[in-house]
Specification:
By secondary structure, the protein is of the alpha/beta class. It has two domains: 42-274, 3-Layer(aba) Sandwich (Aspartate Aminotransferase, domain 2); 287-407, Alpha-Beta Complex (Aspartate Aminotransferase, domain 1), CATH 3.90.1150. It is built from 16 helices and 15 strands. The chain has helices spanning 4-9, 11-26, 39-45, 67-84, 96-107, 133-137, 153-163, 181-191, 203-207, 244-255, 261-274, 277-299, 325-334, 362-367, 371-386, 391-407; strands spanning 28-29, 56-57, 60-61, 88-90, 113-117, 139-143, 167-170, 194-198, 220-224, 235-239, 303-304, 313-317, 337-338, 340-342, 356-360. β2 (56-57) and β3 form a beta hairpin. The longest helix is centred in the last third of the chain and has 23 residues, at 277-299. The termini are close together. The protein binds pyridoxal-5'-phosphate. Pyridoxal-5'-phosphate (PLP) is lined by residues 33, 95-97, 100, 124, 126, 171-173, 198, 200-201, 224, 235.
Length: 412
């Protein structure tokens, strides 16, 4: 990447960016929440738009000189609405967690009851973890997954009836099955709760038509833009028209100051890309690649929470191997595979150690990896874990992962 000016001004930062590019090019990225955004998106994010203050909404700003950013933000809003089939979009949230925070702020008073998915069962921090604002200021009850790694909808219904939440949250950071939004809405209606679908992880799959959409079921939809959707780091909130003004007020002035118009421009570009035919093909390939990886791991004698995945990710279950998620994620890094340790349901280990590793296929699919490459990755992972003490084996596996990276160049 061309860092001509940066190199002159600050060679230290430029060098680390060079090294990071090299790391991304030469390792296999299986962190399920990461992806490689396009150069077009990065150009928008690195543009002069970073100079502009634009507090407020398009055409209703508190600053002058917003004519161009108004048009860009409007494009992002219109593209988000069309792509996800929702009435209203606010593209200003700086992140997914802040998108959720704004929905809480609009709908709830401190102490109100929320029903969300438990973090250790695959939910997100911002769905009511005791260390997050959501768990500190609100009365949070949670549901989890059964032994098959699936949401037990009868259990969600029973908990909703018992706790009478004002808001039910569905959507997860580590859940490998299709989410039944219709069922969640029926449960919410039964107890008079609102439904928030947080599609941070699966937004690209929804956009590409390989996961059902929450539109028509959830009154509120939040997402990140940088996971399967493959845009810049950020968040979006979508909702029914009747909640539009309230949500906008919760984002600004409720929670945030000036919007990041350079990032909003990147979101607009990513949303355009995600509405193309080739993105549909990409989304289909993500799921085929995830399934090929899961099958390869099963064929190599590994266990996966819930068995075969239905989306872009899965959790390797290391219980019974005598090894931990923490140690094995480090071993995978030694063989050139980046992934994160993760709890499995009812994990006997602490969240800092864990018995699982979460694996996702979105980033490698962007590089052009196909099913046969995923089988090879499964072989590398299984053998690295089995031979985690054997340096010679690990070295030969590292050579294999590097060859895969060279077969599918990134940002060349
Ligand atoms: C990643 C994620 C978020 C938070 O996104 P950030 O941009 O990291 O704040 C929120 N919800 C879910 C389900 C996620 O997976």
């Amino acid at each position: 990447m061309d860092l001509e000016n940066l190199r002159k001004t600050d060679s230290a930062v430029a060098n680390y960016i060079d090294l990071e590019l090299k790391r991304q090019q030469t390792t296999i990225e299986l962190i399920a929440s990461e992806n490689f955004t396009s150069k077009a998106v990065m150009e928008a994010c690195g543009s002069v738009l970073t100079n502009k203050y634009a507090e407020g909404k398009p055409y209703k700003r508190f600053y002058n000189g917003c004519g161009n950013v108004d048009k860009i933000e409007e494009l992002a809003q219109e593209r988000a609405k069309k792509l996800f089939g929702m009435n209203h979009a606010n593209v200003q949230p700086h992140s997914g967690a802040q998108a959720n925070m704004a929905v809480f702020m609009y709908l709830l008073k401190p102490g109100d009851t929320v029903l969300g998915m438990d973090l250790s069962n695959g939910g997100h921090l911002s769905h009511g973890s005791p260390v997050n604002f959501s768990g500190i200021y609100f009365n949070v009850k949670s549901y989890g997954v059964n032994d098959n790694g699936e949401i037990d909808y009868e259990d969600v219904l029973a908990k909703a009836k018992e706790y009478q939440p004002k808001l039910i949250i569905c959507g997860a950071s580590n859940y490998s099955k299709i989410i039944d939004f219709k069922r969640f809405r029926e449960i919410a209606d039964e107890v008079g709760a609102y439904l928030l679908a947080d599609i941070a992880h699966i937004a690209g799959l929804v956009a590409g038509g390989v996961h059902p959409s929450p539109a028509g079921y959830a009154q509120f939809v939040t997402t990140t833009t940088h996971k399967t959707l493959r845009g810049p780091r950020g968040g979006i909130i979508m909702c029914d028209a009747e909640h539009a003004a309230g949500i906008d007020k919760a984002v600004f002035p409720g929670m945030q100051g000036g919007p990041l118009e350079h990032i909003i421009a990147g979101k607009a570009v990513a949303l355009l890309e995600a509405s193309s035919e080739s993105f549909k093909e990409y989304a289909r390939q993500i799921v085929m690649n995830a399934k090929a990886l899961a099958q390869g791991l099963l064929d190599n004698g590994m266990n996966i929470v819930g068995g075969m995945t239905e989306n872009h990710l899965m959790t390797l279950d290391l219980r019974g191997t005598g090894k931990t998620g923490k140690d094995m994620a480090n071993v995978l890094e030694m063989v050139g595979i980046t992934a994160n340790k993760n709890t499995v349901p009812n994990d006997p280990q602490s969240p800092f150690v864990t018995s699982g590793i979460r694996l996702g296929a979105a980033a490698v699919t962007t590089r052009g990896f196909k099913e046969e490459d995923m089988k090879e990755i499964a072989f590398i992972i299984a053998n690295a874990i089995k031979n985690s003490e054997d340096e010679a084996v690990l070295k030969s596996l590292r050579a294999k992962s590097l060859a895969l990276c060279e077969k599918h160049p990134l940002y060349d």
